[in-house]
Sequence to fold (208 residues):
Amino acid sequence: MKAETIAVATATAFFGLVVGWIIGSQQARVLPAVPAAGATQSEAAPSGQTPRLIDEAEVQALKSAAARDPKDAAVRTRLGDLYFDAERYDEATTWYQESLEVDPKNANVSTDLGIAFYYLNQPDRALTQFEYSLSVDPRHAKTMLNMGVVRAYGKQDLAGAAAIWQKLIDMAPGSAEAQRARSTLDSLKAAHPEVGGAAPAPKKESGG
Fold:
């Protein structure tokens, strides 16, 4: 499946983090926005893009396959992904949870489940799910990146968001996730010096 993006547009957001995810590629979705002062979770969810139309024929075929094999985690994950892309988050959570019952060590599915909870305006449940993802894989970078977004947007906990992003940067400084965390953290500190000091002003590009 080609890469998808999840975008959140708010007038007060610093910027969007737009990243891809591929089914079965050992990657997970990443929430894309960080709030400025006064932003709320309701401004961040749902994704802001036109939901993908769901292929009901594919859904029915997958459900039949799931019924035939109660131990097929992949087909349940695929159903969760289809419902997520259609912004039918309640149904997405059902299938992600079924997938995790079969394969409880899949941190990617766990993180996608957490994001679905977030889009259902359940930030506490999302954070609990992310904690579970990290219990499975303490170095799961996309979970840490997402956890920071939910702490900042869903809980207005900017210090907590800064702490988890800094942990990610320290853990995997050369990763794409750490690069996004660093950019986000710099913007956060520039707007909110109390979370760790103002970031240096960006350099003006020549010719601009």
